[in-house]
Amino acid sequence: MKTLLKILNEKLHNPVLRSMFIVGVITMLVKALAFYKETIVAGAFGLNEVIDTFIIASLIPTFVNSVFISSLTNLFIPNYIIELKNEGNKASFQSIVFIMVFLISLISAVVILISIDGILDIIYPNQPEENYQLVKDQLYVILPCLFLWGVSIVVSGLLEIENRFLISTAVGLIPLATMILFLFYLIDTLGEMVLAYGTLAGTILAFIYLLFFALKYKQISLGKPEFNRNSRQMLKQLPPKVSSGFLSVMNNFIDQFFAGQLVVGSLAALNYGNRIPAFFVAIVIMSLGNVLLPHFSRLVNDDLKGAYQYLFKILKWMFLAVLVFSIIAGIFSELIIELWLERDQFTSEDTAKVALIQQILLIHVPFYLCTLVLGKFLTSLNLNTFMAWISFFNLLINIILNVILIKYYGVYGLALSTTLVLIISSCFYFGYTYRNYKKIQT
Description:
globular
């Protein structure tokens, strides 16, 4: 034990490893609280239309946030670091990003409000009118979150650039704790709308928390927006990055669309079945990815060959460790779901269904994590066009596999399709990155 503690103490003197450790621990706490929240939700609603409609209502603004705003933020970090390194005008640079986030959120909200009926006809067809109305009622409550999510992501990025990872990661506890309080004390008052109002309240509190610390540490600097080389480079990379994000998120969107064509509860089953895989992906990518993007952005400007070697070392150990986890979690999958969700409205039949979906999705976890880390690295090099093309091919393959596999395996076919697509994508990402590494050696 003394030897292990000594080794841990030595490793934590490395600022990158220390940041990864902090983010990993906090993310585990966030995800543990998320599991507890899901237990309460499952007990209250089971696999009924309330969960399905909430997923659909959340899906639309989350889609915009993931595609447009997150893409902009991922480009903002490496180019902002270059701006700081060159002692440029950081106030102008920040202003450009905040203005773009606001405009994207505003335009998206207007488009959603105008076209919501048509969107629902496409992604959630052949449903009773009361289900459509419930989706829209929840969407109107959730939609203001789009503005707050956008600003919060940028502010979190500013904090992470200054290595304040504890603050930016701990914010994830606030929406979950707020939702749990709503489920305990307001479910009788708010009824079917409790999840939507809990989401809005948690988002507002999280935004206030981040804004407080950003102002306290003077991370926000606003000035007259003026374009320079770095800001133009960021905007130049935005179309391929948005395209990549759009096509990647569309895979999930397509899966939700196909699941919506199946029996009631399929959306919820797919959602629950992905919780454990997503849990581990989130822990690793939050502790690695959020720390590594700023680190890669600095490293590739100083030692490109060393950056590639550092990347391959991380990929090797991460893949082996996560593979072991996936095998163990797959063996005990049904027991995990039974202990976690099986109570009240969630039956043993629901447990068996969700457990099998979970086992299928666990297969892709080590491959998907490698893809995410590789994506962070390629973003630091502004190689976003490649990722856009791969995302396009992933979408085509996913649609084809969904159409084929859903006929034979129903919702399980959707899970299998997702797993196959992510494994294929990981191989392409690694092959492209390794080929570029070989080029710089010659």
